[in-house]
Design brief:
Layout lengths: L1 H4 L1 H67 L1 H6 L9 H17 L3 E8 L4 E3 L4 E3 L6 H8 L5 E5 L3 E8 L8 E8 H9 L5 E6 L5 E3 L2 H12 L1 H8 L4 E5 L2 E9 L6 E7 L1 H50 L14 H35 L8 H6 L11 E9 L6 H19 L8 E3 L2 E8 L4 H22 L4 E5 L9 H13 L8 E3 L16 H12 L3 H14 L5 H21 L9 H5 L10 H21 L5 H13 L7 H7 L4 H12 L3 H19 L4 H7 L5 H12 L3 H15 L1
Parallel strand pairs: 15-16
Antiparallel strand pairs: 1-2, 1-6, 2-3, 4-5, 5-6, 7-8, 7-11, 9-10, 10-11, 12-14, 12-15, 13-14
Helix pairs in contact: 2-9, 12-13, 15-16, 15-17, 16-19, 17-19, 23-26
């Protein structure tokens, strides 16, 4: 019992118990992680599976949709639906029938293709051609005729229908192309012959659409649980129990038509197996824990034995303790602490003495009292730890303007100022800061790839020191920096240059002066309007003016001379981003292998100067773009075909996106080609062609304004009149009267 009450035995027991229990905790975490990973894997597999199945069906349905759109835009169907069901037109109907058969044979999972002419009252599919009244699709056509959409879905018990108006317009489309899809085909495509898993499809309103009834019942059960249903809709796989069985469900919503695909998989056996393994592992863990407790107690006794002997030995050596130890506790630590305390105090005195001697030595350097300075002497005085000859060595003087009434306040001020300097410059590559006559001297040494790299680094550091002191201490300082020297013998000369640089900014605040080649170059970032130059580069790039672009690039980098290093990098990355936007606009592929050299630009590395960076931008990004946009527009014949196609189908209200998709072009690129070739945008071109067609119909036919408006795809006669008057300065009626008067005058 005495052993158990002992403080050190308790500590040993606690440490060993902690060490011994770590493997148990690790094992517990592994078991828990294994179960969690198993579930996560099942969830991930199920989620991935339903996404793949959804995508498989979507690809087929997208192909059905695009095939119907192409067929609906073809001249065969758009002209054929206006023909009456007469013998003289049967040649046209044979062509239509051939196209329907082609669609029906090549599209999966379409059960039938139906073409309906509401205007001429007939229905055609690959097998039959009859009137709407006598057609088996009579009721379907009557239901669909009233839907004011250009493309939509319709559902029945056994079939799904995809409808496209002809022409492609919800108002002027007076005919329909209908794809009939058998739900059983969709279900078999999703489920196959498996009975343990399947897929249920819900329509955009959440109603049952496709799937086996027993799986639909499971989905309805999940929907009754709001929490599980929300998780399922958010894309998370869930487990649910239904009729004494466990099921794993995952869902994915289609962007094509809003359908929700839900997979249901029976996993009762797998879950029971995992739970059995899980329980067995917990029994093993509990047994291991009992064994560990026994071993820990035995090893604690074994390890405490020498500590007990040590405690007795310390007590014997401190039998005549001094008064200051009388009130201490009886722990070994307090006893040993007293023995080493005196030794620590002695070491601190020696350390303070070394620091004092090092400061005296540095003061002699900055007062130019030492004519010869070597790396060996600096190492002997503890200033540096290894030779620095060959490094870029700069002497930096920080002049502060602060008068403290009491010595204690001045010491606090200098302590804060030194901390800011050492935090920003670092303590590894500097001599310890020394204060002499309101100037803090610091000698900085570093290895750089180039003098320009050293300059940029010091610029940034000095700017940060000036800003930090102004912000946190509320005073102004000036900084003088010497030219770089490359051996310790040049330090006295560098000190003199630093002092001269400081004298040049007497009366100023927040200035930094570099002596020599960089004399009077200030670190503080001035107000430079470089954004305008960047925009001029992009504008000249888009206009294809190569010489002007090169000129603006030179001026851009001239404006950035003296900009802080990290702002310089940020601005260059903005320019690169704008250039890449131009590449995307023209669908041109840039050389991405050259981008990393700019984003990782460092003046001390591969691209080691601003001039090299400028050449890199020009050679790999700006000049290639200029050469690309100067090339003649490819496939002039294709552009002519597009214009001819639009002229032939001007009454179908074809948008830019539809036209680009039909000819497999990027909409932005197609718009730019129109502007370049025709001198007008795609919309302006379509308006001009529509107005020409309007004028033809007004002068050569007796169609009413309402009929012409609907025929050309305007959403109302008032909108048609407004547009016509805007571009011709007269109404359609006035134009028709004017043309009639001209005809009467000729007659």
């Amino acid at each position: 019992m005495k052993l158990i009450r002992d403080l050190y035995f308790k500590r040993i027991f606690a440490v060993l118990l902690l060490i011994g229990i770590i493997p148990v905790i690790t094992l517990m975490a592994a078991v828990s992680g294994m179960t969690s990973a198993q579930n996560d894997f099942l969830y991930e597999v199920q989620s991935s599976s339903i996404v793949n199945q959804k995508r498989q069906i979507e690809v087929s349905l997208e192909y059905v949709n695009s095939s119907m759109i192409r067929a609906g835009l073809s001249g065969t169907l758009t002209s054929g639906v206006r023909e009456k069901r007469e013998a003289k037109n049967f040649q046209s109907f044979n062509l239509i029938n051939a196209q329907l058969k082609l669609l029906n044979s090549s599209i999966f999972p379409v059960n039938d293709i139906i073409l309906v002419s509401l205007q001429q009252d007939w229905v055609m599919n690959p097998e039959t051609f009859t009137t709407i009244e006598n057609s088996e699709y009579k009721l379907l056509v009557e239901q669909l005729a009233g839907v004011k959409q250009s493309s939509f879905w319709h559902y029945e018990d056994d079939f799904i229908y995809l409808i496209e108006r002809i022409p492609v317009n919800s108002l002027s489309g007076n005919s329909m192309l209908i794809s009939k899809i058998d739900k059983k085909i969709l279900q078999y495509e999703l489920d196959g012959d498996s009975l343990d898993e399947g897929v249920v499809i819900l329509d955009e309103n959440g109603h049952f659409l496709v799937g086996r009834p027993e799986l639909a019942a499971i989905v309805e059960y999940v929907k009754a649980s709001e929490k599980k249903w929300e998780q399922l809709q958010e894309g998370q796989a869930i487990q649910t129990a239904f009729h004494h069985e466990n099921y794993l469900c995952a869902a994915s919503k289609s962007d094509l038509n809003g359908w929700t695909y839900i997979s249901v998989v029976l996993n009762s056996d797998l879950k029971q197996g995992v739970e059995s393994v899980y329980h067995t592992m917990w029994i093993v863990i509990f047994s291991v824990l009992i064994i560990i407790l026994s071993l820990v107690f035995w090893f604690s006794k074994f390890l405490y034995h020498p500590i007990g002997e040590l405690n007795e030995l310390v007590d014997s050596n401190l039998s005549d303790r001094e008064e200051e130890l009388q009130d201490e506790d009886e722990s070994i630590a307090s006893k040993v602490n007293y023995l080493v305390k005196k030794n620590v105090e002695l070491k601190k005195k020696l350390s303070d003495r070394e620091e004092y001697e090092r400061e005296i030595y540095l003061r002699k350097i900055y007062r130019n009292e030492l004519k010869e300075i070597t790396s060996e002497e600096l190492i002997n005085h503890g200033v540096i730890t290894s030779p620095i000859d060959g490094y870029y060595i700069h002497v930096i003087g920080i002049k502060y303007y602060h008068k403290a009434e009491q010595k204690e306040n001045l010491e606090v001020f200098l302590f804060g100022l030194k901390n800011i300097i050492t935090e920003l410059i670092g303590i590894e590559n500097i001599f310890a800061p020394v204060v002499i006559d309101h100037v803090i001297y610091v000698t900085h040494y570093e290895q750089y790839m180039s003098a320009e790299g050293a300059m940029l680094q010091l610029n940034r550091t000095c700017e940060m020191i000036i800003s930090a002191v102004a912000q946190y201490m509320g005073i102004g300082i000036n900084i003088g920096v010497s030219r770089p020297v490359f051996d310790t013998a040049g330090i006295p000369e560098a000190v003199e240059e630093c002092n001269i640089a400081l004298r040049r900014v007497i009366g100023q605040f927040g200035a930094c002066v570099f002596w020599g080649a960089n004399e009077e170059k200030h670190v503080a970032l001035s107000e430079i309007k470089i954004k305008q130059k960047r925009l001029q580069i992009i504008q000249s790039l888009l206009e294809g003016k190569e010489e002007l672009c090169r000129k603006y690039l030179d001026e851009y980098f001239e404006k950035m001379d003296g900009v802080e290093y990290y702002l310089f990098k940020l601005e260059v990355n903005k320019l690169l981003s704008d250039i890449l936007d131009c590449y995307n606009e023209y669908s041109i592929q840039p050389d991405y292998t050259k981008m990393k050299e700019i984003t990782d630009f460092d003046i001390t590395k591969d691209i080691d100067s601003v001039e090299k960076l400028k050449r890199h931008l020009w050679n790999h990004f700006l000049q290639p773009f200029n050469e690309k946009i100067k090339e003649p527009v490819e496939n002039q014949k294709v552009i002519s075909e597009i214009a001819e196609y639009l002229n032939e189908h001007i009454e179908q209200d074809i948008s830019l996106d539809q036209c680009a998709r039909y000819f497999n072009y990027n909409p932005n690129y197609l718009s730019r080609m129109f502007k370049k070739l025709f001198g007008k945008t795609y919309t302006e071109y379509m308006i001009d062609k529509k107005l020409e067609r309007c004028k033809e119909l007004l002068s050569e036919t007796d169609l009413s304004i309402n009929e012409i408006s609907a025929r050309l795809g305007y959403n109302s006669p008032q909108n048609f009149i407004r547009v016509f008057k805007k571009y011709t300065l007269m109404t359609p009626g006035q134009y028709r009267n004017q043309q009639n008067l001209k005809k009467e005058g000729k007659n």
